[in-house]
Design a protein that fits this description.
heterodimer; A: mainly alpha; Rna Polymerase Sigma Factor, Chain: A; Arc Repressor Mutant, subunit A; globular; B: alpha+beta; Phosphorylase Kinase, domain 1; 2 domains; 7-stranded antiparallel beta sheet; 6 helices
C-alpha cells in the first residue's frame, strides 16, 4: 500500500493541475470540478495497475471520462447533439481577425464553446498535447480531433470578433 | 482534410513533413494564406497566454485516502451486534423470569416456602439482614389484606435474593428483592403465573403469584409506598 501511494504520488501528482484544469474547464465551476476530480483520482488510484505508457494522457482520460459521466448525469443538455459533429458553413480562417482581446472576454468565449470543442481546445492549447494524445483521452479518431480543434478556433474567433461584441451589449 | 483544417494542423505541428512542405510552398506565393496562418498562430498564442489555467486545490496534492472497504459493512455489523445483544438480553430476561417462576413453583410445591416464618416484620427483617449483604424493606401489609408469612433466601440470576412471602386469601405471593434498579420492568404471565417486575428505592422487585394481576398491582403500589 505504501509503495502504491509512493508510486502514485511520483507518477500522477505532477499532473494534478492538468487534471483539475481539464475538469474545471469541462464542468465550468470549481465545486463540480472538485467533486469530479475527487472521484477521478480515486479511480486512478484504484486502477493504477492499468497504467501503461505515459501517465498524463492516462490520467486525463480518466478525468475526462469522469467529467462526461458527471455531465451526462447532471447536465445532459451540455452533451453534444449529433449535428454538432457535422461541418458547419462557418467562415474559413479569413474571418479570424482579432488582435486585441481582453482576457475576460477570451475566457468567457472559451467557456461558451460547446463541450466537445472546449475539451479539444483546452487539451491542445492549455495542455499542449499532440493530436494522438487528445484522440486517446477523448476516445475519438485523430481526424475528429483535427476537425474539432479547427472548429473550436473558428467559433472562438467568431465570438471574439469586434462585430460580435455589440450583440452582447444591453440595449436601452 | 479541409483546407482550413490543414492550416490548423500545420500551426499545431501535426502535418506530416511532405504536406507541411507543400503548404509552405503555397504560402510563399499566397500572402492571404500566410496571413491566415499568422492569425491562427495569434489566436493559439492568445489562448495559451490569456486563458485561465486552473491549478488544483491543495487537498488533491497527495494520494487519496481510500475509504476502507470494510467500513461499508460497519453499519450492518453494528446492527448485527445490537440485534445479538438484544436477543441475548431477551433470552437472559426470559431465563431470569423462568428462574423466578421455577423458584416460586418449587417453593410452593415443597416445604421450603419459608425459612423464617413470622408475621412480624421486626423478626423477618433482621433475619434477612443477618444473611444478606443488604437489608430489604419488610412491610406488614395485613391491614391491606396481604399477610406477611415470612421470608426465605433464594438464588436467582446468579445472585442471592431475599424472598418475602405474602398471603392473600389462598394465594401465595413471592416478592423477590435484590439491590440495584437494573431490572426490566413490566408485567407478564408465564405458565399460569403472573409476574410483575419493578424497581423502587434502589431495589429491584419481582412478584410471582397465581394471584390476579389487579391485586398484584395493589401489592406493588403498597410496596412502593413504604
Amino acid at each position: 500500500m505504501t509503495t502504491d501511494r509512493a508510486r502514485y504520488e511520483a507518477l500522477l501528482l505532477p499532473h494534478i493541475d492538468a487534471a483539475y484544469n481539464l475538469a474545471r474547464w469541462l464542468t465550468r465551476n470549481d465545486h463540480d470540478a472538485q467533486d469530479v476530480l475527487q472521484e477521478a483520482m480515486l479511480r486512478a488510484f484504484r486502477h493504477f495497475d492499468g497504467l501503461r505508457g505515459e501517465a498524463r494522457p492516462w490520467l486525463l482520460a480518466i478525468v475526462r471520462n469522469a467529467c462526461w459521466s458527471w455531465l451526462r448525469a447532471n447536465r445532459p443538455a451540455e452533451l453534444p447533439a449529433a449535428e454538432d459533429e457535422q461541418e458547419s458553413d462557418a467562415p474559413g480562417p479569413e474571418a479570424l481577425a482579432m488582435r486585441e482581446f481582453d482576457r475576460r472576454a477570451l475566457n468567457e468565449a472559451i467557456a461558451a464553446l460547446p463541450l466537445a470543442f472546449r475539451e479539444a481546445l483546452v487539451l491542445r492549447e492549455l495542455e499542449d498535447l499532440p493530436y494522438k494524445d487528445i484522440a486517446r483521452i477523448a476516445g475519438i479518431p485523430i481526424g475528429t480531433v483535427m476537425s474539432r480543434i479547427a472548429r473550436a478556433r473558428r467559433l472562438l474567433a467568431q465570438a471574439l470578433q469586434p462585430a460580435a461584441v455589440p450583440r452582447l451589449r444591453v440595449h436601452k | 482534410m479541409r483546407t482550413d483544417e490543414r492550416l490548423h494542423a500545420y500551426v499545431d505541428g501535426e502535418l506530416d513533413a511532405a504536406s507541411a512542405l507543400e503548404l509552405e510552398r503555397e504560402m510563399a506565393q499566397n500572402p492571404a494564406l500566410r496571413a491566415s496562418v499568422e492569425r491562427l498562430r495569434e489566436l493559439s498564442a492568445a489562448v495559451r497566454t490569456h486563458a485561465d489555467y486552473h491549478r488544483a486545490p491543495a487537498r488533491f496534492r497527495r494520494a487519496p485516502q481510500e475509504k476502507r472497504r470494510w467500513l461499508v459493512f460497519a453499519p450492518a455489523f453494528a446492527m448485527a451486534l445490537l440485534l445479538g445483544a438484544a436477543i441475548g438480553l431477551y433470552f437472559d430476561r426470559q431465563g431470569e423470569e423462568a428462574e423466578l417462576v421455577a423458584s416460586h413453583v418449587r417453593a410452593t410445591l415443597g416445604n421450603r416456602l419459608i425459612d423464617v416464618a413470622s408475621t412480624d416484620q421486626h423478626t423477618v427483617k433482621p433475619w434477612l439482614s443477618a444473611r444478606l449483604p443488604y437489608s430489604p424493606a419488610v412491610a406488614d401489609l395485613s391491614s391491606e389484606g396481604f399477610q406477611l408469612q415470612g421470608a426465605r433466601l433464594d438464588y436467582i440470576g446468579g445472585k442471592q435474593v431475599a424472598v418475602l412471602v405474602y398471603q392473600r386469601r389462598l394465594h401465595t405471593i413471592d416478592v423477590y428483592v435484590w439491590p440495584g434498579e437494573e431490572t426490566s420492568r413490566g408485567a407478564f404471565a408465564r405458565d399460569g403465573f403472573n409476574v410483575e417486575r419493578f424497581a423502587y428505592g434502589g431495589m429491584s422487585y419481582a412478584m410471582v403469584s397465581d394471584l390476579n394481576r389487579n391485586e398484584l398491582d395493589d401489592l406493588k403500589r403498597l410496596l412502593e409506598r413504604r
